[in-house]
Structures are given as C-alpha cells and as structure tokens.
Amino acid sequence: MRLLKFTNLLALGLALTFVATGCKRKNAGVTKLPDGSGMVGNGIDNGNALKPGEGVQMGGGALGGFDPDQMAQDRAALATETIYFDYDSSSIKGFQQSKIGAVASALKSDPSAKLLIEGNCDERGTEEYNRSLGERRALSAREALAGAGVDAGRIATRSYGEDRPADSGHSDSAWRKNRRDEFVLLHPR
Questions:
Q1: Domain range enclosing 126
Q2: Is residue 14 in a domain?
Q3: What is the mean pLDDT of residues 159-165?
Q4: What is the pLDDT of residues 50-95, one digit of tens each?
Q5: Cα–Cα distance measured from residue 65 to residue 152, given in angstroms and rounded to the nearest whole number
Q6: Nearest to residue 57, comparing CAs of 138, 112, 124?
Q7: Which helix (H) or strand (E) holds 174?
Q8: Which of 97, 72, 71 is nearest to 83 (CA)?
C-alpha cells in the first residue's frame, strides 16, 4: 500500500514537471550587442516557412539607421566572397580573411553602400540553436569587417538558421555548403 502511494506521488510529480517545463517557448527578444545596437524583430518562424526578408535581424537594421529590406539588394556583387564555417563554430578561418578583406574593400570604395550579412547553418541541431549559431556567425563576420575598418553601423546582420540551405542534401558535403555567411551589398533606392 505504501509503495503504491509512493509511485502515484512520483508519477504525479513527474507529470507536473513535464507540464511546467516541457511546453514553454520563448520569443527572441532584443539581443544587446557590445556596441549598444540590438536585434530588430523576433525572427521566430513558429513552424511556418520564412518569407523573403524574415529571419533574426540584429546589428544595422532599423537601429543602425537603415532597413535592409527597403534598400536595393545586389546579391551577385559579393557572391564569390561567401565564407564557410566548421561544424558548430562561428570562428572565421584564417584562409578566409581575404574574403573579409574583399568585402571591406567593396564597402570602402562606395561610401553610400551598406551590407547585409546572412548567417546560415546546416540542418543538424534544433531550430532555436541553429538560429543562435547563424546569429553568432553573422556577428563574427560583422566584427571582422569592423576590425578591417568598416563602420559597423553600415552593416546589418540576419540569421536564417537552417531555413535557407545552399544544398538540400543530407551529407557532409551538403552540410559544408550550408554552414556559411552570405554578403548582400545594399544601395539606396
């Protein structure tokens, strides 16, 4: 009889624990950056496919004085400068520093241009984790560009997590292509 009461209490305790902790979902709020700027919008997909221009935004954006979605986007200009990351990493490899330099040169040569950095991940990991990792990757490139002399206020970042794969395969080769930052040159309309 005592054992039955104990197991019932244990089962009730476990059920309450699952109810209390298993169903919570936080919206991403404002992420403060070291320079005082923050994230715009919550970027959470909640199970629906993202529309163009959606994703987690921080850096630049409305808080940086411009909205990347209101500017003319030139994706081809810096398409060859895409940088790739190791698994579960936001560190830019030394041999990719030349690509950061090329992006910095493009921005320095056109003072009216701005930049959108899109952070992406492979499909492994949870959606929330991949959004966070994509954010860290984009911020890493933003920091590298600021170190190369580009005003960080001219750079907006956005994380798409795993939502925009470059290769839809499920192999190491596909995943390598999906762990990337893409640079989009922006011009006033």
A1: 27-187
A2: no
A3: 97
A4: 444 444 444 444 335 689 999 999 999 999 999 999 999 999 999 9
A5: 11
A6: 138
A7: helix 172-178
A8: 97
How many separate domains does the chain show? Answer: 1
Q: How far apart are CA 62 and CA 112, in angstroms?
A: 17
DSSP 8-state secondary structure symbol assigned to residue 173:
H
> Phi and psi of 144, rounded to 5°?
-65, -40
* Residue 150 to residue 142: CA distance in whole angstroms: 9
21 domain-assigned: no
Whole-angstrom CA distances from 101 to 2, 119, 158, 185 are 72, 18, 20, 15
What are 21-48's pLDDT values in tens digits?
554 444 443 334 444 443 333 333 333 3
| Listed residue (96, 76, 94) closest to 84, CA to CA | 96
What is the C-alpha to C-alpha distance for residues 26 and 44, in angstroms, rounded to an integer?
A: 9
Which of 55, 30, 31 lies closest to 43, judged by CA?
Answer: 55
- Residue 125 domain-assigned (yes or no): yes
Q: Per the domain annotation, does 16 fall within a domain?
A: no
Q: Got the DSSP string for 88-146?
A: T--PPPGGGHHHHHHHHHHHHH-TT-EEEEEEE--S-S-HHHHHHHHHHHHHHHHHHHH
